[in-house]
Amino acid sequence: MNATFIFWQKYMHKTLKHPEEIAGMLIQPLLWVVLFGVGMRGMMKGDNYMTFMIPGIVALTAVGAAIAGGSTWLNERLSGIVKKYRAAPVPRVSILSGHVLTITTKVLIQALIIFLVGLIMGAELNGNPFGWLGGLILIAAFGIGFSGLALAAATMTDSSEGYHMLIFLLQMPLLFLSNSLYPLASLPLWMRIGALANPTTYVVTGLRQTALDSAQSAGAAAIPLWICFAVSAGFALAGLAAAAKAFKKENR
């Protein structure tokens, strides 16, 4: 655990040393909320679309942070830095867990910014602090799951282009075959079936029921909250398992 924290500290310190990366991390969520939210607001007449879309923007941002984390991991592998980590007297799993923890930390920071900006722009947030806590747990689980998939993809290839192609194949259905941007009930049957098989749907629905005013979020109660937590936890474990398997295979 201590080694995991050391790796987390190293990666976070590296981020803080690059102001352009901090600026990107802070400004990207602002652009998503302001440009995408305002542009799409007119699609849902009679509902507060800002409240509805905030969880989807959080999911989009989490995926972006995970992809960036996977790129960092791939660059370190290709430049030989990961080999030096392996030679160090630390548990090898801590190398991976430190990276996952770093990505998840960035995801949570960006999510808080999105909620703050959303609140300023009219989103109806839940006044219950336990709802906020539940929302953060869901976001962390999604961040862990997708960062695990990104790290697995970055471990399986030695090509930057190949990595982005692999992650693109995962990213598109995870984001757009879900209820992130449109109500589940409005989707055609085949898309609804696909959305219900997608973990993003459960994170987004869970956020609408915990951190936001569910009365303003269309279809928020369509899936029981306990199922949202169970699927999110399963996705986190699956992502970690995929990353660990790829990491172990590379070490043989």
From TrEMBL:
One Pfam family, short name:
ABC2_membrane
Domain called ABC transmembrane type-2: residue spans: 20-250
Any one cellular-component term (Gene Ontology): ATP-binding cassette (ABC) transporter complex
Q: Which InterPro entries match?
A: ABC2_TM, ABC2_TM_bact-type, ABC_2_transport, Nod_factor_ABC_transporter
Q: Which UniProt keywords apply?
A: Cell membrane, Membrane, Transmembrane, Transmembrane helix, Transport
Topology relative to the lipid bilayer, per the entry, is:
Multi-pass membrane protein
As one GO molecular function, the record gives: ABC-type transporter activity
Q: Tell me the PROSITE patterns matching this sequence.
A: ABC_TM2
Q: Which family does it belong to?
A: Belongs to the ABC-2 integral membrane protein family.
Q: What is this protein called?
A: Transport permease protein
